[in-house]
Amino acid sequence: MSDAPTRPLPAVTREMAPFWDAARRHQLVVQRCEDCGALRFPAREVCSRCLSRRAGWQPVSGRGTVFSVAVMHQANHPAFAAEVPYAVVVVELEEGVRIVSSIVDVPAREIPIGLPVEVVFDDVTPEITLPRFATRAGPSSRPGSPGPP
Known about the structure:
It contains one helix and eight strands; from the N terminus they run αββββββββ. The protein is mostly beta strands.
């Protein structure tokens, strides 16, 4: 048995249960207003565009770009101490919504804003699968590579 601290896991709330259920199936979903069609994440009771309370869940592509990066130089939980420095990123999906996550294949200090990424799924426990992101294939998606002409 390991003495390493256990990683904290997200709480599966009633509002976010459909998101976590879809993640376990390796599918990324976001909430969609049934009246105006606006997409939103995380789930909330009222649409910020039209104030409707009617919403469903819609699959999204899982493709996007890094919108922002914060490199953590101090572990905010003992389970992350061995990973310092690590990055917390905000990914803007092609559909326009943003999700907080991590990048699995680029060192924290080398993650550029605008990096094209796609979702990958990390089956942490039988109940929790975390959507994380990896660099999308292609010559302009590698850190340090010049973009399109």
